[in-house]
Amino acid sequence: MPTIPSGDKLIFTSASVDMKERKSAQINAKTHVYTMQDVADTVNAGGGGSSNDLEQADVTLTPAQMLSFNGGQTIEIIPASSKYISIIDILVSYTFNSVAYNFFGNIMTGDKLGFAFGSASPTSDTTQFNSSSNKIFTLNNVPNATSANEAFNLTSTSGVTVSQGDSTVKVSVLYRDITL
């Protein structure tokens, strides 16, 4: 798959047209044949003079992972990189199985299960996990990374308890991975 240089000009013809060169050797040396697939591949690779920093992370959390949040735990959703992570949206799909989770934490003292960067405390209380029915919800009030190389996590504080639950949780995060 060739990557199309950002300065090249494109002229499109039907695939049935014979592209055998009938020009001078000097012009032929500067002529390249690209397909629409080459154009699409170049754009998707961030080439052609543009940058595509939009990313999506999809993570499925098992019941065992959800129960591990008892007493403080962190599960990485987006690994740390040398770039800044800017969260656009978080979609959570909770598929109820047979036993609801019983997450508890004293919100007045800051005990929470939620999303956060690095070792920061979670900013949102996600008691939606204590549901006895399927749920889909979005979170879009998560602060962005304050420095490069911070992972984005689902984390609980030490006062959070959970002793039951058997449902699967899927997390999909739409974000930008930005070089400043």
Strand order of the largest sheet: 1-7-3-5
The number of helical segments is 3
Taken in chain order, the helices and strands follow as HHEHEEEEEE
What's the rounded overall pLDDT mean? 82
Features:
180 residues; mainly beta; Jelly Rolls; four-stranded antiparallel beta sheet; three-stranded antiparallel beta sheet; 3 helices; 7 strands; 11% helix; 29% strand; elongated
How is this structure best described in words?
This protein has 180 residues and is mainly beta. It has 2 domains: 1-52, no CATH class; 54-178, Sandwich (Jelly Rolls). The protein has 3 helices and 7 strands, in the order ααβαββββββ. The chain has helices at residues 25-29, 36-44, 63-67, and strands at residues 54-61, 73-78, 84-95, 113-117, 135-139, 152-156, 168-178. A 4-stranded antiparallel sheet has the order 1-7-3-5. The chain is elongated, with a radius of gyration of 24 Å.
SSE blueprint and pairings:
Blueprint: H1 25-29, H2 36-44, E1 54-61, H3 63-67, E2 73-78, E3 84-95, E4 113-117, E5 135-139, E6 152-156, E7 168-178
Antiparallel strand pairs: 1-7, 2-6, 3-5, 3-7, 4-6
